[in-house]
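Dig into what follows:

_____
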Amino acid sequence: RTVEAFDHAEPFYYYLLYLPLLTLPWLLVPASAALWAARSWPRWIRRHAPGVFRRHSRLFWLALAWVLLPLLLLSSASGKQPHYLLPVLPALALLLSLWLARHAEKDLKLGARWVAGMWGLLAVVIVLLARGSGSELASLVPVTTVVLVGVTLLFVGSTLWRRRPVEIQVPHVTVATILALLLLHLAFQPLRPAFDLQSFARELGELQAEGRTLGFIGKYRAEYDFHGRLTDDIRVLGSEGKVAAFCEAYRDGVVVMRIRGNALPAEAIASTRFRSKYDVALPCPQAAEQVV
């Protein structure tokens, strides 16, 4: 995992690509202030560089170390995932707070039009993906919900169009972000059943408790072990060609397979939607017929 990860191996610079995304929308909020600072950069350096964050220097260096050291260590490891960076977000929030506090003292007005544009762009993307992607998964979200989400996100973004003083603009961006995230969470609730394998896993656990051996066609990632409280391994068959041999060895076995389309086999003991496919459990005789 550290030197040569068997999974999720990524290059050294991987986290530098995701760090900006994890700071949205706050990365866009101080954009106008950053441009203002750039225009007066030489003068600002001469006047303020020796005392940058003087009153909060300890907090500044603590937050900076909190970000840079984990970033260096995580980047050095071969296995990487974006969510590994979540523990550094509080430190990034502290750094941004210190930066904004300095500009608040100067009565600087912040423009959040980039943030407004982000919410507007997200609204357009959601509508296009939900209605134009042709995805079976996206079709689970009702049209009225998609339209309502799009219109509301546009409205949320429009409230950020004005330039305001820092101490007023930051609460506006905060409230708008919370409302947008809450709205997206509620809008995507229809998709939840397509990612919930609990009831299906429990049914598999009951079959295993009856003494029936379970097999799985494809690459098994332990999706059922925890919720199903499985006490024995699922036999990973890999390909359909191994079903016959499995059923020969376990005549009372059950084969789990992932299929496309809404036409589920009538012989299925249990079934559930999983993303854009379905997971079905078939008794051995019917499973052998299904894969022929």
Notes: The radius of gyration is 26 Å. The first helix runs from residue 14 to 22.
